[in-house]
Amino acid sequence: MTLANDAITLEIIQNSLQAAADEMFAAMRKTAMSSIIYEVLDMGTGITDAQGRIASSGAGIPAFIGVLDKSVQALLRRFKPEEIHPGDVFIVNDPFYGGVTHLNDLVLAMPVFAEGKLIAWTANIAHNSDVGGMAPGSLSGDATEIFQEGLRLPGVKIINEGRTDQAVMDIITVNSRMPDFLKGDVWAAISSVRVGTKRLEELAAKYGVNTFIHAMDSFMDFGEKAARAELAVLPRGTFELSEEQDDGRVFNVKITITKDEFIVDLQANPDQDVGPTNACRDGSMICAQMVFKALTGHDTPANDGCFRPLKLLTREGSIFHAKEPSAVGFYFETEVRAYDLIWRCLAPHMPELLPAGHFATIAGTFIGGIHPDTGRQYTIIEPQIGGWGAWEGNDGNPCIYSGFHGETYNTPAEISEARNGLFVERMELNTGPGGEGEFAGGRGLKLEYRIRTKNGFLTAGYTRSKVKPWPLEGGNEGSGNFIEVIKSDGKSERFSFVSGLTVNTDDVIRVVTSCGAGYGDPKKRDARKVKADLKNGLLTPERAKEVYGVTI
Amino acid sequence: MSGLPAILDGFRAEGVEAVAISFLHSYANTNHEEAALAEVQKLWPEVSVVASHQITREWREYERTSTAVLSAYVQPVAARYLQKLHDGLKSRGFEKNPYIMQSNCGVDSLPATMRTPITMVESGPASGFWGAAELGKLIREPNVLALDIGGTTAKCSLIENGEVRIMTDYWIERDRKSAGYPIMVPVVDLVEIGNGGGSIAWVDDFGKLHVGPQSAGALPGPAAYGKGGSEATTTDANLWLNRINRDYFCGGEIDADMGSAEKALKVIGDKLGVSANEAAQGIIRIANNNMVNALKLVSLNRGFDTRDFTLLAFGGGGAMHAVALGQELQVKKVVVPAAASVFSAWGMMMSDLRRDFFVTQLADLGKGGGAVIEGTFAEAEGKALATFAEEGIGKDKVTFLRYGKFRYQNQEHTTEVPLSGGKITDESLSKIVEDFHETYEREYTYRLDAPVEMVGIHLVAKAEVGKLEMRPEEIGGADASGAVKGRREVDYALEGKHQAMIYDGDKLVPGMAFNGPAIIEDSGTTVVVHPKNTVEIDAYRNIHINLNG
Fold first, then answer.
1. I need a labelling partner for B39 at 20 to 30 A (CA). Which of A440, A513, B387, B476 fits?
2. Nearest by CB to B206, which of A16, A183, A225?
3. Distances (CA, A) of B446 to A30, A31, B266
4. What are the pLDDT digits (tens) for A135-177?
5. Distance from first CA to last CA of chain B, Å, rounded?
6. Which region holds residue A384: left if phi is over 0, alpha if psi is between -120 and 50, else beta?
């Protein structure tokens, strides 16, 4: 076969890896039971090579796809080659055993064999509604040890050469407060890894195992080449930033960019938390990977090769490299901080690549109780949308998910009301002050739920509440994220972190997310844009005069 | 309503031409939208206005609103166009009422289409896919993978047991980088990719070859058009490999500019470090792979085994690639219909007056569930009969097909199951549940021991409005050699170069048979027949290609 045809064959296999990951995603989405999976799409799918190196970008949110290779590598450390068979499906959720995130996120992985040889893995991850632990939904701000956050799965087989291990399935199921959901979601995940495995087996059968493996290897080399080409044109040097957090702690990052290395140093950071906001090292690595990828080729596929120039330094026992058995339930707010910290540290040096700060919280919101119409338990688990920062020449995007989350979707009010038995009283742009600039930050969200039954609960954890999204070049900072509960008697209280608060009939839960930060002096904003903002109801005439100096 | 005059004044001042009305929960209760619609029509009779419930009765406010807005957006121009068409036909003495092709594979009346013109959005492909379903029935191949390749895109759809699949989660302009816009109207289930004859081949910064989605269009068109196009397209590669006849390009209407084609292919080859010839082979292989992945999305991805399906290829470019794709997917056989390049027009002539009603209605499949479901169908059927009656079509002419959208309790997405066997009662529910489990397991590899619930109905109401009557010709004993117009060396990419017999498509008559490697040419289509294939012409002059391994 000629050289051109050979290269084309490799490319066809590489395209087909992506198609398989997409197919896995579609299968999982359509069969899942929890709205956090099927509606919000808080999930990811991907394919790794036999060594657990991510081979195709996969589908879903980047912070989740980045988990999969780490999980498979942990499984490979835990199981001997002779213990891994065709038809096996593994399950892991514990960050100290390759689960990376928190116990709610179940990772399923399936080895792919061809000609009797392990050639790849298919894997997926999704947030499950409840995996046991001390609080409904498994996440509690009061947790001090991982044991309180649910059932720990250190990497076990749930399917053994095609046969379901009923014991494992039963243990997982009875440990959940929502066993039917859990079972449905786990089966959705199993069907997804199986679909992917079938496709990869077909590919290997068609083109031969060696060609298949060669295609994966060369795809990673291509990823590395693309990343290095972009790295070579980034500004070089060492950049450092210390940033105060809402709770008064100070986080620090040092980034060194050389011709062929990108080193993120998170060592000078506080000790791990007694509460549940710890991140594991694998998770911190994902934060670094996401910013690195944004800087070195958002247009090229993401695979293991892309990250070869990246180095991460952490200190064991710190907030970004917590030790077993620390609690990790709200890991995501710490990781989104690390992600935003790296971004902020570099933004002033690469304004054409990185906009001003965005609302930068997952804004994980958990509401549950009894559905007034069906009498069944309901649980809302949702991240929130917010405003993005402005950059040279452009206003920020209003109301999309955080950069940590990527392509996720909010639930339609019509579905939320039917499913959860509450009223979605309001969902609009947050038009309060904040984020003004020559280029303005995008607007945040104002969302209100009115509760319809007694004895429901609210748990939420938002950061960037006191310390607000950071502007660039003299713009205004964003407005801050918070949640507010307005009791039926009119009394209200604001929170950024709240755990298991009881809510009753006619209480209103108001979610307010931040505007993105502005770029450039507001006084320089084009008056036509100010007028358009006024017409669109994004500004009041008073505010237009005060901040922009524009009088109508 | 007291605020409405001020809002409309604002719209007038802004030069608004069309208004969309969309309220929360109007899928369940249309009263408020109806009242607002009537008020707008009263206050501003000239403006184009549509309310979301007129288009869809399904939940999801974002999708429904997007649909209403896009419908309003096209309404003024569509209404003007349709009115002109109507007046023009009348003034030239056309006495009947024309029907307009719809995205659901049916036709609808002109006034109905003017009210919600967004339903035409995929009418072109829909007519082709309907044609594929009808032709499948005619030639006793009810399971069809239909492939339509034009100048800029390839579209495919799956037909099972003679039935097209109609869905309401259609998106426009959606791809990996763009969220696109949902249009919640009944559209034939199709996958579309940017790969057609005019798709441009390009090499990225890292030496990887891509084909499409950018297209050279009709102008400048492929390099070989000689109209200034300098970029290699799929058509240029097909010409270069002798798959398309250089001396009979576009039915002989264009002199193929092979110099330009070679230059364009050489640019690609140089970037890849190979010859123009190898570049052309690569372009064909990448284009084919893109199309195979699209065909898998409508078949294997949904649990259908392609070996049970016949690949029916049409459009200007379908037949050029069909055998390679069919071999990859191991389909039963490949059929290229007579007049493949204008097959969609034939499909239109075969369609019925058809309306699809989707209604969101949650129902448990327990005691009393039968009555709820039957009631929902009865209401929709009553509405359907009323709309047909307005057009003078009596009850006896209308037939219904019923589908239910089911899921396991707590799921969101549904699986559509046909409901045969007449009136739905509590007694018939267990059969429905079993049908759901079966359909679900085929698509997703497992079933659950969980309660099943209905989320909504899909009712198809059809009335025949006159179809072409197809008459088979006699199968004769004529030898295919009479249709041979020559012989040339053709490059089959992976299968190498072969001397292929060239047949004149217009001279092929029923009963003729021959073997590949061969090329069949007529003014609109080139059929590439690979080595080992055998070809037969059926009584309707369709070309049947057996792949033989």
1. B387
2. A225
3. 13, 10, 51
4. 888 988 899 999 999 999 999 999 999 999 999 999 999 999 9
5. 69
6. beta
